[in-house]
Task: inverse folding
């Protein structure tokens, strides 16, 4: 019985090489498994005073909707950060009468009953700084006077140089 073309030694080697190349390419291809891992979430900053704002972020939901809820700020609807909805974002203002201490923030993917993940938010005592952002609160009257004197001296020196230049020309 004559040998078939695939049974010839050179064709078997070629077939083995093609099979090996296919296995190598298949093993290098990325594997996508929907929602294999649980979502991860974060709150920034992790410590905030009552009245302050926090940013909320959850990744790995695989949905275009989600919520974040806490006794520190109530319920917040999260929106997708990109078309694939791999990140959901939101922000919240901590209640001005929130109790100091650790508060649990629960992120829920999709509608009620979706995947959940919790993180901690620390509410610090005191109020959120406003106005000038606290840039004046820690300065003494002596530091303010010294700064004003230096600024006035720099202004006077600049005027003196400009007047001197105009006389020379």
Result:
């Amino acid at each position: 019985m004559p040998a078939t073309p695939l049974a010839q030694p050179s064709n078997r080697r070629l077939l083995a090489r093609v099979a090996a190349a296919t296995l190598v390419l298949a093993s290098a291809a990325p594997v996508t498994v929907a929602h294999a891992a649980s979502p991860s979430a974060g709150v920034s900053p992790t410590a905030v005073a009552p009245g302050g704002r926090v940013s909320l972020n959850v990744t790995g939901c695989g949905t275009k909707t989600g919520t974040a809820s806490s006794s520190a700020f109530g319920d917040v609807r999260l929106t997708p950060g990109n078309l694939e909805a791999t990140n959901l974002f939101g922000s919240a203002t901590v209640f001005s009468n929130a109790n100091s201490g650790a508060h649990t923030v629960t992120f829920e993917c999709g509608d009620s009953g979706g995947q959940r993940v919790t993180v901690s938010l620390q509410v610090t005592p005191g109020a959120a700084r406003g106005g000038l952002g606290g840039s004046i609160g820690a300065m003494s009257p002596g530091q303010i006077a010294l700064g004003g004197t230096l600024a006035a001296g720099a202004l006077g020196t600049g005027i003196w140089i400009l007047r001197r230049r105009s006389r020379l020309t």
User: Anything to note?
Assistant: The helical segments are 9-28, 141-168. The longest helix spans residues 141-168. The longest strand covers residues 101-109. Confidence is low (pLDDT under 50) at residues 22-36.
